[in-house]
Amino acid sequence: xxxxxxxxxxxxxxxxxxxxxxxxxxxxxxxxxxxxxxxxxxxxxxxxxxxxxxxxxxxxxxxxxxxxxxxxxxxxxxxxxxxxxxxxxxxxxxxxxxxxxxxxxxxxxxxxxxxxxxxxxxxxxxxxxxxxxxxxxxxxxxxxxxxxxxxxxxxxxxxxxxxxxxxxxxxxxxxxxxxxxxxxxxxxxxxxxxxxxxxxxxxxxxxxxxxxxxxxxxxxxxxxxxxxxxxxxxxxxxxxxxxxxxxxxxxxxxxxxxxxxxxxxxxxxxxxxxxxxxxxxxxxxxxxxxxxxxxxxxxxxxxxxxxxxxxxxxxxxxxxxxxxxxxxxxxxxxxxxxxxxxxxxxxxxxxxxxxxxxxxxxxxxxxxxxxxxxxxxxxxxxxxxxxxxxxxxxxxxxxxxxxxxxxxxxxxxxxxxxxxxxxxxxxxxxxxxxxxxxxxxxxxxxxxxxxxxxxxxxxxxxxxxxxxxxxxxxxxxxxxxxxxxxxxxxxxxxxxxxxxxxxxxxxxxxxxxxxxxxxxxxxxxxxxxxxxxxxxxxxxxxxxxxxxxxxxxxxxxxxxxxxxxxxxxxxxxxxxx
Length: 577
Prior knowledge:
By secondary structure, the chain is α+β, with helices and mostly antiparallel strands.
């Protein structure tokens, strides 16, 4: 006999869940044993693990206090540096108007310290090579254009000396080979401290384009201002620069050299901390010191670039005030308290569902266990691939998710019970209850995910961990609901214990007040009287007639009663008065 469709769907869903689980464990095992970068335990954040705290004091050339905008931009730059080092859950804030406090989980290595302590360096370099090797070059308009590969043996002899910053003679055979092997995503490649008088291999900040740049020809101190606005001629957003006198002269000479050159030798790159912010092409000779950068800007992207050029250009340096190790003693105690609270909550949920749903409660407990396994291994993988670290707020999000997950199962089981009360079979109640419950659960989970996303975007960094784990567990909850809970119910409904409505199964139709009892069995009907309705009416009529007849006989007896003599009276003869 062929297996029914619900059973086949159930086994397919469970098989898919098993494959997903095996794949996640395989990915993490690859990171642990092959790449030596992952772990079987989640990485902890600063508040739980402890770490390093570095306090930097911002200093200007003239000794004046930095402005709030300068400090905020410095915080942004330092945070980007920390993220580029692969450190997750780092906290970078301002303190006292001129100090920047950097807190990093774990011990900061020397490379990370140097990256944090370095001042913001904005450099202007000519572009020698752009795009993927031997394929395309990417212009300032974002379009890819094919162009011939420069001859890597062009400057293979030591006698060919470059004459200017955009001379292709800078591209030697060795430099070109290094360019071919350069990986933009490799944290070991740190272009921030490259020599200023030598070519630089680097990438766009997002890693989308790879460059060979010439030596530094201008630095950020030459830029006195950077603004953004709409161009009156075409209505597009642009970034407008202003150079000082020396910068105006140098930039004018550069524009004369680059204007009219073949791509990408007509491009000039703005480099912050070694990464290219923008590499526009030179479309005119600019001698007035006020160039404009145009392209596919929005108001937001134009503002970001203007701030980077304006404040990244400021000659801010940082002096290390202190560098301390933060103890994780308090964090460990808080973690233990959080884990105990989570276990207590899980135990209370288990006791409640076993009392209310009996054997069905085991399905909820099993679903929570599967969800816990998938959540755990996912957090381990995210720690490896994204630098995610579990904070105390993240632990709170995991604890809260226990209630949200149990709530989904309760909605489903109550729908099944409603169907049983309507007299449906147990297998039919499982399918119809699923159809009714999943809409409610999808809507509820969508709201949870939306709230988590909004909270993650708008909330303070200390709350982001809560929002992230809440959103992650909500997604996993929906997957468990589809791939585990419902398929298990489909299979259990066809077992003798659950399918017959055993009193301990939690699906006893009699206990729920349903007429239907098990498979094709109904409760015995209540015994009914064999008299028909007409017979009952006739019986009532006879009783009423007998009652009235008795009353008439009593009245007749009173009329024929004998007078005080005791002799019976005789009726008057007919015709007598």
